[in-house]
Amino acid sequence: MAMALQPTAAGANETWLIDDRSAGGAVSTLGPSWRFFTDGVMGGVSSGSMRAETVQGRSALCLRGQVRLDNNGGFVQMALELPAAPPSGDWRGVEIDVLGNGRRYGVHLRTEGMWLPWQAWRASFQATPSWQRVQLPFMAFEPYRTSGTLVAQELRRVGIVAIGEAFDAELCVARLALYR
User: Fold this and answer.
1) CB 3.0-4.6 Å disulfide test: which of 5, 56, 106, 119 passes with 161?
2) Which residues contact 2 (CB under 8 A, 6 or more apart)?
3) Is residue 77 a contact partner of residue 160, using CB atoms and an 8 Å limit?
4) Helical ranges in 25-107 per DSSP H
5) Which segments within the chain are labelled E, that is strand?
6) What was the pLDDT predicted at 73?
7) How does pLDDT run across 10-63, given as a tens digit for each residue?
8) C-alpha closest to that of 20 among 11, 10, 8
9) 102: which residues sit within 8 A by CB, 6+ positions away?
10) Taken in order 124, 126, 127, 132, is the CA torsion positive or negative?
11) Which residues on adjacent β-strands are paired with residue 67?
12) Model pTM greater than 0.85?
């Protein structure tokens, strides 16, 4: 599958499109399918689901659930393993079109060499009830139980996460890309 660079809506920057929801279902534009996880993998009791929907006229993948902190839990997540590394380039960050319930959500990036499931580069954003394009520069991502430098060409997985506090999660994603 081609991984073409495409101009953003403004035309000023190039992007590497990861998913624009055109493939349907849980399948990403790059080919692999998104997967849903909860803290149940470590004994927590959060619950939820992931579903492809049309929301306010846009195809989206929606993450919904109840984040609970019982049993040292506290997350629901949809994640995508990338089939290949991003092409070489001066990538500045992650760009995501989202709509949500006004809560704070996270983007967790995993790179080459991360073996433990809790290791990630983390950044967060507020999801408004209207579609918005959020740009998260790589310098805003903080290492979590890892060290070193975040290198875009080593990106292997992207997770969209409701985490860290007890709340009802509702977040829809219509587009995900890297931007220059």
Assistant:
1) 106
2) none
3) yes
4) none
5) 5-7, 14-19, 35-38, 47-55, 58-67, 75-81, 93-100, 104-111, 120-126, 132-137, 142-144, 155-163, 167-179
6) 87
7) 444 599 999 999 999 999 999 999 999 999 988 999 999 999 999 999 999 999
8) 8
9) 126, 127, 128, 129
10) negative
11) 167
12) yes
Q: Identity (one letter) of the amino acid at 4?
A: A
Taking a C-beta distance cutoff of 8 angstroms, is the pair 157, 75 a contact?
Answer: no
Dist CA 72 CA 143 (whole Å): 21
- Of 42 and 80, which is predicted with more confidence? 80
Task: Tell me the two tokens of residue 91.
Answer: 């990538």
- Looking up tokens 């080593």 gives 154
AA identity, residue 153:
Q
- Which residue is associated with the tokens 């007890």? 166
